[in-house]
Structure formats: structure tokens, C-alpha cells
Specification:
Blueprint (H helix, E strand, L loop, with lengths): L8 H14 L3 H10 L4 H11 L6 H21 L1
Helix pairs in contact: 1-2, 1-3, 2-3
Length: 78
């Protein structure tokens, strides 16, 4: 990931995660994250809402699998 604009490690990680989840480029990731005060979950939700769920099918499948894994881990700890 090009970090020509200085980011702290937490911001760089958030940008990488955002790109991985949404399929967006780095510029879009930075814009979305900055507008959401670097809150990854909020930025991803905003991106998905603005794109009416028109994300890449592979990305959507990855996101659904990731969400299912988090849900299963949460349920197991309940």
C-alpha cells in the first residue's frame, strides 16, 4: 500500500482493511476513513450504503464469511 501521505500504523492498518473489505482503492479508503474519524466499521458501512451494495461479488462473499466467523465466535462466547 502506498503511504506517500504519512499515516500512523493504526491508520495504515485501517486503510488496508477497508480496501480488503470493500475492494476500494487507497484514495477512497483514506477519504472514507477520514470522514468517519478513522472508524473502520462506520467507514465501511458508509461506503456500502453509498454504493447500494454494488461491491464486487468476491469481496461481498469474503465480507459475509468474515462476518459469519465473527458472529460464530461471539455466539460461542455467550
Amino acid at each position: 500500500m502506498d503511504t506517500s501521505v504519512t499515516c500512523d500504523p493504526t491508520q495504515t492498518d485501517a486503510m488496508e482493511q477497508f480496501c480488503s473489505i470493500t475492494g476500494a482503492d487507497e484514495s477512497m479508503a483514506r477519504t472514507a476513513l477520514e470522514s468517519c474519524n478513522w472508524n473502520l466499521e462506520l467507514a465501511v458501512n458508509m461506503f456500502v450504503d453509498q454504493n447500494d451494495g454494488q461491491m464486487d461479488t468476491n469481496t461481498t462473499n469474503h465480507t459475509n464469511a468474515s462476518t459469519a466467523n465473527h458472529t460464530n465466535r461471539f455466539d460461542a462466547n455467550s
